[in-house]
Amino acid sequence: MTILKFILIPIIIIALFSIIGMFLVYMERKVCAFMQIRIGPNRVGKFGMLQTVADTLKLVLKENFSPKYIDKFLYNLAPLLAIIIPFVLTIPIAYSKSWQIWDINIGVLFITAFSSLSVISILIAGWASNNKYSMIGALRSGAQIISYELSGGLAILTIVMFSQSLKISEIIASQANGWWIIKGHIPVIVSFCIYMITITAECNRAPFDLTEAESELTAGFHTEYSGMKFALFFLAEYLNIFILSALGVILYLGGWQPFHLPNLLEFNNIMDFIPAPIWFFFKVFLIIFIIMWFRWTFPRLRIDQLLKLEWHFLLPLSLLNLIFGFILIMLNFIVK
Amino acid sequence: MTFNYIKDLIHAIRSLLKGMKITLKYFFSPKRIITQQYPTMKPVLAEKFRGEVVLIHDEQNEHKCTGCTSCEIACPNGTIKIVTKQEVNEAGKKKKALDVFVYHLELCTMCGLCVEACPTAAIYMKNSYEHSTFDRHTLLRKLNQEGSKLQSGIE
Questions:
Q1: Is B152's pLDDT higher than 80?
Q2: For residue A210, what is the enclosing H or E element?
Q3: What's the CA gap between B41 and B86, in Å, rounded?
Q4: Which of A200, A208, A215, B43 has the most beta carbons within 10 angstroms of its beta carbon?
Q5: Distance from CA of A200 to the nearest CA of B (A)
Q6: Does A34 touch chain B (CB under 8 A)?
């Protein structure tokens, strides 16, 4: 049985992630198109549904080119490391009450710890490419991710403080009588806003895509990558968005739990009828939509503006928010 | 100082929300989409759109080009090459006439200076635009049709 699990779970996760990756690329292109009054992919398959399949096929068939003056070992290691991290991060994510690989008692800490490793893959890629664009992009990424992890961690800490647990299943269980974003009052709403900004920055997406910054650095850290190695970076970016949005759903929107309104039994029963994984994926894609909405609305920040936003605004705000939440708990204002 | 800090913060949040409102409005109104799907939806071009140089021929297969090479001289990048021949008319007089009007479409920048330079208005710029081919040599064109003659009364 254990051996079967060892074989089956990786296969399921790989299949799930490749489908999610392809779907997210398609969704991104469609969302961006509609927001810019365009149509988006519409030639391959119905409504362009097979566009990402065609793109993936093209990337697989491409020549695996690598430049001459690079650090061969690190150059090949970086995309591998980038793609491993989202697979590791999926371990404590609960897709439904029983669909969870491993319910670690430090689930949230596990995710925050491993998600910060993605900066190492970017730094390795930038260093090994032996290219000034890549190096600048990678160093910017280092500054950016390390800064934004602070306020992201503090935002997560607010919820951990409220639910008094780091275990994913217990955090979800603490929201059985109402999601944190509804019953958590101002501190949770503020921390949710900070969390949304932070995951946009952690995933290196616009308006914080200084690591890529097409107009200044051609493609940033993956300038020298092409074919499947580039595709791995690309896929890792989308899977990271998925994982961090899933964590956001678990922390703020009640995980796989259906939406309930107090004192409306019939409405609640109808909501209970929808299976838990569908609720989970619906909420995750809602958050992903908001992140895509950010990307196609806001202009990119300069590096100094980016760091100023973190150190002058978000970090003081999240610290104050944490203290405010603590006072509310001391006054018994928040129901667990 | 604190006042400015808070004022900046509120201003920033308000302006960001304003931008997000606009993009969301676009997202939920697909009727606004202005994309023209090219191969199925051909664009309507202006009559004066400059696509390629054409030598005008009438029904009797006659053109107005006298072979004066004004267009060749006017062309800034050697797109046009006029080859002339000596022709003997009924009166027994020798006269210069057009033999081949060579036109390199691949070099043409569509500036229209040749049309302006032509003293007899023999050439004009057509508004066709689908010129892409797989072979560069198909873009080298001979503009005068086979067996065409100069219109009478054009000197």
A1: no
A2: none
A3: 49
A4: A208
A5: 15
A6: yes
Domain interval for residue A112 = 70-330
Mean pLDDT for the stretch of residues B82-94: 79
B27 and A35 within 8 Å at the Cβ level: the answer is yes
In this structure, are residues B62 and B144 in contact, taking their beta carbons and an 8 Å threshold?
Answer: no
Q: Which two tokens stand for residue A310?
A: 């973190």
Asked if B122 and B64 touch (Cβ cutoff 8 Å), the reply is yes
Residues with Cβ < 8 Å from B153, sequence gap 6 or more? Answer: none
A-interface mutation test, from B6, B23, B37, most A Cβ less than 10 A away = B23
Is A175 within 8 Å of A254 (Cβ atoms)? Answer: yes
Residue B26 lies in a domain: yes
pLDDT for res A334: 67
Interchain contact A47–B (C-beta under 8 A)? no
- CATH code of B95's domain: 3.30.70.3270
CB A168 within 8 A of CB A243: no
What's the token pair of residue A68? 């001459």
Please name the member of B19, B23, B35 whose beta carbon is closest to the beta carbon of A39: B35
Token look-up 């650095």 returns: A217
Same domain, A54 and A91: no
Measured between beta carbons, the chain A residues lying within 8 angstroms of B19 are 297-298
Phi, psi of A54 (to 5 degrees): -65, -40
Alpha-carbon distances, residue B151 vs A246, B58, B59, B62, B86 (angstroms): 79, 9, 11, 5, 16
Write out residues in chain A with pLDDT < 70, as ranges: 213, 334-336
Cα end-to-end distance, chain B, whole Å: 84
> Do A303 and A224 share a structural domain?
yes
> What pLDDT shows up at residue B127?
86
Within-domain flag for A336: no
3-state DSSP assignment of residue B138? helix
Helix (H) / strand (E) containing B98: strand B94-104
Prediction ipTM score: 0.72
The total of structural domains in chain B comes to 2
- Other beta carbons within 10 angstroms of residue A149's beta carbon come to 18
Helix (H) or strand (E) holding A333: none
SS3 category, A140:
helix
Residue A28, H or E segment: helix A2-35
Residue with tokens 């019953």: A183
Q: Are residues A44 and A76 both part of a single domain?
A: no
Q: Are A42 and A127 members of one domain?
A: no
Query: Quick check: A297 and B23 CB within 8 A?
Result: yes
Position A111 in a domain: yes
Looking at chain B, which residue has its C-alpha nearest residue A193?
B13
Interface contact B78, partner A, CB < 8 A: no
Burial status of residue A325 (CB atoms within 10 A of its CB: 0-12, 13-18, 19 or more): buried
- Residues B62, B108 share a domain: yes
Please tell me whether residues B67 and B138 are part of one structural domain. Answer: yes
